[in-house]
Amino acid sequence: MMMLTPCSSTKLQSVYLHARLRQHKPFLASNPYSKQWNIPSRKLNIKSKSIQQKPKQEEENYVFDRLFSNLNQATLTREPGSLSSAIFLVAGTTVGAGILAIPAVTEEAGFLASAVTCISCWIFMVVTGLLIAEVNVKTMCELGSGGVSLVSMAMRTLGNFGVQIACWSYILIHYALLVAYVARSSDILTNFLGLPLWESATLFSLLLGGICYFGSQRVIGAVNGGLVLGIIISFAALVGVASGNLHWDALLKANFEAAPSSIPIIALSFVYQNVVPVLCSNLEGDLSKVRTAIFLGTAIPLALFLVWDAVILGSISTVATNSDTIIDPLQQLRSANGVGLIVDIFSLLAIATSYIGFVLGLTDFLADLLKLPSAGNKPLPYILTLFPPLVLALLDPEIFFKALDLAGTYGVLVLFGVLPAAMSWADRYSDSTPSVKLQELVPGGKLTLSLVIGASGLVILTEAIQNFGRAQMM
């Protein structure tokens, strides 16, 4: 382990970064301008282990603008990801199929209770996303490379056991949700275009998958930004039409005892953490920008979820529900005049933005799992990402809510609840701490991490007991 002593900022940069680059020649080869790490900044604080061991009054912080530079391999010019594109990527990934099911699972609790639950889930998911970002950037520092996924993060912090949990949970969630997205989008496109179901599903998968594979960061950001803008416009139109029958007194209903049962689907609705490694890589490890992108990128969906829930619960007097199934709340609106088309457009755009984010996240994960070079897109991860969900969606067109229920009940709270807190705990408090210390994005120390792990475990255990009880009654 390299030990550093207090020195000037320039000297520390040169010693640390060049030593790292010598240890990781593949990264140096893929990024010949890796020396551009050595640019001062105001945000990202890095201090050596030896400095950290000194009394507080003698500690010396070193500040960097970015960990590396994103280069265009053809022109060798720096192409940093923009903060606005990062915000749209998080927002677009978050606004997905989960929003379509929120009113159905919150109807019994009422709007006030479900709003408190929704805000609580948002805070929880922001915290876990920041924990992932913190560990991801530390992992990039330790490995001397960009584009590391949860596999490398879990291996560095938790070892093989953490890798197994991360791999299986990540694959389960992503494939389940991609199957759900393809199934629902193909149904909508079939109604629009009159095409056979398999053609609609193939068209959707190849069109958006092709954008992810062939498009640059700017192209994908522009497409995603346009889709998010379309979501906002169609959402505003939908709210305007559906709110004509809004009963304000219905929004005062609050049954807090029924609220916990909605947590898995609401937590699923706020999933974006799969693109945090992509976010950290695009923003070149700038933790200040990453934190801003996560906060603002999830705040937009939070506002949409609250308004959406209020409009549906306030305008539909009775939503048919069953304790063993999830009912599509939009079927209620499709029967109303002038609403059906807007509902389909909003649903398709919401699914498309989330699909792009999950494809990017899963391909990055698979590339890291398969130990593929980070330079340039490789076709194998995209093939493994796009085609299995397409096949499964065609085998069972009614799989939409089954997939949502499976992913939301167990996978999300394990992968994006327990695991980030466990990795951060190991990163912060393990005896084998890394030689580089970054600023902590989430305050509260062990208390905060314990609350995250405890809350996730409680929800998982409660859902498991309830599901076991239903199985016994059948």
From TrEMBL:
Regions that span the bilayer: 86-105, 111-133, 161-183, 195-215, 222-242, 293-319, 339-367, 379-395, 407-426, 447-465
InterPro entries per record: Amino_acid_transport_2
Keyword annotations: Cell inner membrane, Cell membrane, Membrane, Transmembrane, Transmembrane helix, Transport
Entry membrane topology: Multi-pass membrane protein
Cellular compartments annotated: Cell inner membrane
PANTHER family: OS07G0662800 PROTEIN, TRYPTOPHAN OR TYROSINE TRANSPORTER PROTEIN
Protein name, per record: Tyrosine-specific transport protein
